[in-house]
Amino acid sequence: MKLRRLLCGSIGFFSLLGFVGVFTEERLFLTFFAFAVEFEHFFAPSDEYLDRQILVSAAAGFFLGMLVSAAAALAGFISGAASPGNVLGGAFAWGWAAAVVSYSVCSAALSFRERWYAGDKE
Predict the structure, then answer these.
(1) What contacts 17, CB < 8 A, 6 or more positions away?
(2) What's the rounded Cα separation, in Å, for the pair 32 and 63?
(3) Containing structural domain, residue 48
(4) Around Cβ 103, how many Cβ atoms within 10 Å?
(5) Sign of the alpha-carbon torsion through 94, 95, 99, 100
(6) Could you read off the pLDDT of 78-119 as tens digits, one per residue?
(7) Structural contact between residues 103 and 60, judged by C-beta atoms closer than 8 angstroms
(8) Neighbours of 118 (CB within 10 A)
């Protein structure tokens, strides 16, 4: 469990890539700041709820990312506005961004819910 906590906390270092979006014109790098919530795993005690939170958040991010990728690719192919390679690359970028945001929001919501219920018991 300690190794999993360290690995999940290390994902927070991806948030440093968000500064590329701050200092350049590549604004999609700003989505990396969503990984900053992962630093919390360095300080949180490992328990079953934390494991469940990670699994639920990861699954939600994965499935939403795939749905957004598929929808963006389908819309791009139907519109015919760009070459298939560009459409697919853009679709994957949108899907990745949706997955990161979904994972972060779901993780934060589950964490807030745990703290809310823990506050009621004290």
Answers:
(1) 29, 32
(2) 19
(3) 2-121
(4) 25
(5) negative
(6) 988 778 778 888 899 899 889 988 988 898 888 888 878 776
(7) yes
(8) 10
Its pTM stands at 0.69
C-alpha 102/C-alpha 89 separation (Å) is 20
Calpha distance 104→61 (Å, rounded): 8
In angstroms, the Cα distances linking 117 to 35, 40, 122 are 24, 18, 9
Q: How many CA atoms lie within 13 A of 48 on its CB side?
A: 0
What is the distance between the alpha carbons of residues 116 and 69, in angstroms, rounded to a whole number?
34
Tokens found for residue 36: 């900053």
Q: At what angle do helices 48-79 and 84-121 cross, to 10 degrees?
A: 150
Element of type H or E holding 54 = helix 48-79
Give the total number of structural domains in the chain.
1
The token pair that represents 33 in the structure block? 């700041």
Placement of tokens 């939170």 in the chain: 53
CA 119 remoteness from chain centre:
27
